[in-house]
Structures are given as C-alpha cells and as structure tokens.
Design a protein that fits this description.
0% strand, 191 residues
Length: 191
C-alpha cells in the first residue's frame, strides 16, 4: 500500500488523530499540552508568529506544539493558510511539525503544502524535507476535468524549477505527482 493511501485511510477511520491521542497522553504530557494550548490561546485568538512557534517547538517538542495548534480551530485554520501561501517562515515551521503529524493533521498539512507547491514550488521543495508530504496528497474526489487541470497545474509548477541543487527533489516530486494523478483519475473513473 502506498504511503499516501495509508494516510488517507487512517484519516477516514477516525479516532486515530491527535485529538484522540490526547486522551492517551501521560499526566505530565497532558499538563504540558494544556499549558501550551493556554499559552497560544492567551494571544486573544491571534496565531503566534513563526518565530514563536519555533520557540514552542524547541521548548515543548513538535508533537505538543502540533497538538496545541490542531486542537484550536481558531489557530489551526490561519496556520494552514499561511503554509498554503508558501510563506518561507511558515513552511519552515511546517517542516518541523511534519515529523510529529498523524493522519488528520498530516492530511491537512499536505493539502496546504499542495496549495503552496502551486504558488512557489521551488520554495516548497527547498524547505520541506519529505517529498511525499510536499508533493503527495490530493483530493481524491472531483470532476475529471477539474482534477486533470489541477494535476497539470501542479506538475507545471514543479517542472518549472530550474535550480540545479533541486533537480533530484524535482524528479522525485514529479514521480509522486504522476503516480498520484494515475491513481486519482483511475479512482474517479476518468479516462
């Protein structure tokens, strides 16, 4: 089974995400998570800066920081938006948090990275270490023409990268996109 398929199936199973796992954390981890959530919430609904999130990752670890963001919708949605805009500081935060992401958070991060890839493929491939995360997830449902157009757009963005140091990642990313295109179009019974 392909890694992207596994993640998608885990997401749809439900109950395996960070929110579900928070109930299984030990007492000290739970207290740490609650303190981190409270720290983020004290910003009166404003998302911490990328620099503040780097500090929180350094202090509390990527899993606790991701848990605090993911469990606060007022923080999570703007966080994903900043990643989707391909803003370098936010891509750097995403890269650090990807190591701790689970099915639900991973899928949402991958969707945001996919949007970022369309906007600035060079920056995404330069910043994100895991090619599967950077290039892999795509909505499995949709109109065949829209899906084909979206894959063509994403592929073109990656093909346009000319930086010599990124050519290996470019080739790997294109391979992921081509495989995903084939699987997605087949899944949707597109010709």
């Amino acid at each position: 089974m392909k890694r992207s398929e596994l993640r998608s199936r885990q997401c749809w199973r439900g109950g395996t995400g960070l929110a579900a796992q928070s109930g299984r954390l030990g007492d000290s981890a739970m207290v740490s998570s609650l303190l981190l959530v409270a720290t983020i919430a004290m910003r009166n609904g404003q998302l911490p800066t990328a620099e503040e999130l780097h500090s929180q990752i350094d202090e509390n670890g990527p899993k606790q920081t991701l848990l605090a963001l993911y469990n606060d919708h007022a923080q999570w949605t703007p966080f994903l938006d900043r990643i989707a805009y391909a803003s370098l500081p936010w891509l750097e935060v995403a890269n650090r948090l990807l190591t701790a992401s689970d099915a639900g958070a991973a899928n949402e991060l991958e969707f945001a990275l996919g949007d970022a890839l369309n906007k600035n493929a060079e920056r995404v491939l330069r910043t994100i270490d895991d090619i599967d995360f950077a290039c892999g997830l795509f909505s499995l449902a949709g109109n065949c023409d829209d899906l084909t157009h979206a894959f063509t757009q994403r592929e073109a963005a990656v093909r346009a990268i000319e930086v010599p140091s990124l050519q290996k990642k470019r080739v790997e990313c294109l391979a992921v996109i081509v495989e995903l295109r084939k699987d997605t179009l087949e899944y949707n019974k597109c010709r």
